[in-house]
Specification:
It is a single chain. This protein is an alpha+beta fold. The strands form three sheets. Strands 6, 7, 8, 9 and 10 form a five-stranded antiparallel β-sheet that branches. It has a four-stranded antiparallel β-sheet with strand order 2-3-1-4, with helices on both faces. The longest helix is centred in the middle third of the chain and has 35 residues.
Length: 857
Amino acid sequence: MRGWKVTTMDKRIPGGAGRSLPWRPLGLALGAVAVVAGAGIAWSWRRARIRAVETSPTRTRPLVPPVAPDDTRRTEPQAAPVPGPEAVAPAPPAAAPAVAPAPSAGLFGHLGHAVSGHPWVFLVAWLLIAGLAGFGTFVGFGQGGLFDRMTNSQSLVSGSESDHVTKLMAPADQGESITIVVTGVDLATGMSQATGIMSSQRLALASVSGVSHIVDPFALLGAPGPASAQAQAMLSANRDGFLIQVSLDPALDKAGRDAAHSRLDTAMANLRTALSAQFPDAGVASISSRAIGDAIIGQVQSDLLTGEAISLPVALILLIIVFGGVVAAGLPLAGAIVSIVIGLGAVWGLTFWLNVDSFILNIITIIGLALSVDYGLLIVSRYREELAATLLSAGFPTDGSVVPDKATSRALVRTAAQRAIATAGRTVTFSAVTIACAMSALLTMTSDLLRTIAVAGIAVTLLAVLMAVMVVPALIVIANRVLIRPSVLTRIPGVRVVTRAVGDAASDHGIFSRLARRVHAHPWIFMAIVLVILGVMASPIRSFTMRTVFADYLPAGNATTLAYETLQADYPAARAASLIVVADTPPADAAPLLMKLQGLPEADFVSPPAPLPGDPSRSFINVHLAYDNQVGSEVTDQVSTVRGWDLGYDLMVGGPAALQKDFIDSVLASAPQALAVMAAAVLVLLFLMTGSLIVPVKALVINSLSLVASLGTTSWIFTNGHFGMPQTAGIETIIAACAVSFGFGLAMDYEVFLLARIKEAWDAGLPNDRAVELGLQRSGRIITSAAAIIVAVFIGFTFGKMIAIKEIGVVLAVTVITDATLVRLLLVPSTMTILGKWNWWAPRPLKRLYTHLGFLH
């Protein structure tokens, strides 16, 4: 309606600086840094291996057991066996060395030496950083805390047509608009009473300091012409309520707006009290950029607390089962908590350069928590394995029945911690770099929101691995003999049995090695079965639909959400338009456009042409189409239709459907670049780790199949509302993009874990099948345990109310479950069995390159 405007949800919340970063140069710079860092790490490891060979004629501890007598496919010298941590040695011989030799030098060798030698320095330094990050997050150093500085964007693609329309409809010099929604007032019988009450309350609302203008229907009812029509539009279609439009002074700063909102809340409470005397069911709520932002951010905080309250206890219980003790179980969680706090501080810092939307905080927290626990679990597990071998080499039993004195224990623990960093530290760093590269693919997108998610995701991924290779080992060394002694929990009947069955024992023979042998016997059958299952899971991808609806982010049952829903249902002239058409012609000349818009299918409301705010030479028309799904294909098709009209002047189309169309189009247009970045990262990093060209290509294909299967299953779950999830008309576009990036990275996470162990066995001279068998046995329990914990973290966040967070939690949980079971346990072993020695093939030039830059695990 002309002369007034109802504020809906598409407004930016103040707080972020909004300055855009040079994304493409930033992406190239990050890529260059990754390449240089990878080359530096490779060179350092290569030099470390050369020095190790020069200074150590024999291995201190072999990595793998000998080859079975009947396995003669490789003729390289075989290594000696390694006893598992559950083995108990006889009494220490007199000549046994007190401590096994330390691991060789190199990047991670030096890091292990530094962390194990000065654990308190590293721990205190990171705790100080965490303290500063926490203070910035929750207090803000006078600049506002994280939740005060986050925003809610109305546009997802800067420079798009829908973005331009949005900016034209809300010029920067226009004061904030607030719509007061009054319900429970029977106008059919109480019009005179309501008019009388509003005559006094109107003055009270208008006298609020900071309010520049107020419009209510009772002041316009007696006016002639358009004013009377405007008054009728502000009355509920059911005649059980009305709207009041309030505008704030454009000159107000943030503090002034905050004060005006507070005073207006008091005036609204007085209005509710006055109405209740005549209408007992009267309710008063407001819709504004501030109210909507507060509702969304409040839900983000609530869902964050809910997710962590569920995920952390479940993760702790699973870690206790894996490690059989509270102290060992608490180490990964301690690293995760420090990582989360610093990660939140990093996101707070990003708000000074970027507009950080509130809901992405949960996405980043999910990823940071999952990866921190994942990496910490691997480090602690490898430490326990190294500790068992170190104890055994020093002549002590590995079951903790005999604990060395304090000084000897310190030396043994430091040596084991160094080895854990030098081995598992390399693996988790590889994994983190791979995931970071997968996330960097989002930097190729034209959406500022997706690029912000990429920057924040890369930051929390790097923090997760830094905590794993610094904070967790520092805590291990500080704990000293605590981790050598058996946990008191093992005295509880049944706990020891459970721990031995599903714990992190590093035996070279067990359920996973038996599974590998079964796969070796029938590789084609297992591969066919898994591919059929993945095909069935992927089949719903044919009807996969992406959608972008800001209303989905409003918390259900919230007062602001209820007011918004009332507005859409009861006020046809004020509800959110399906299309907002801006024409380069004045309203007086827009009659032909008005007639064409009225002829659109299902057009149940078309507003008269009105002058564009701040530019009377141009006009705008709001169009509402009577479709249940306001961003469905029926509406987006009309966006394309109107944009194609030629009336002799330029037209632009905005609104929710146009915004979604522009966003999806931008994602699809950038998808080839993003996928190319992820593929290149996988090929390069896995080649540098394995020296093979076949393994990276195979991993790329397999992980792509796994990801498509996960997306198809997630679409089936939400389209049909299975497993207690809400039924939706599609998956949020933001979540779909994040699922591809994050899901692909997580799938590569377990690929790296498994290949690292297989590569150790292959480099030690074992045949391909035996290397796969041993690698799967050595990593199977850890991969399964890590997957169970990560799934618990993801599922924990689905108990919140925000649909987008439910979707990301489900899709990542399905991805991890699929990857850790069907792919890692069956498909990878079967394909590696079929390929045999060709797994490790690469052209001679690449082999020579790997010789100089090989990641030798």
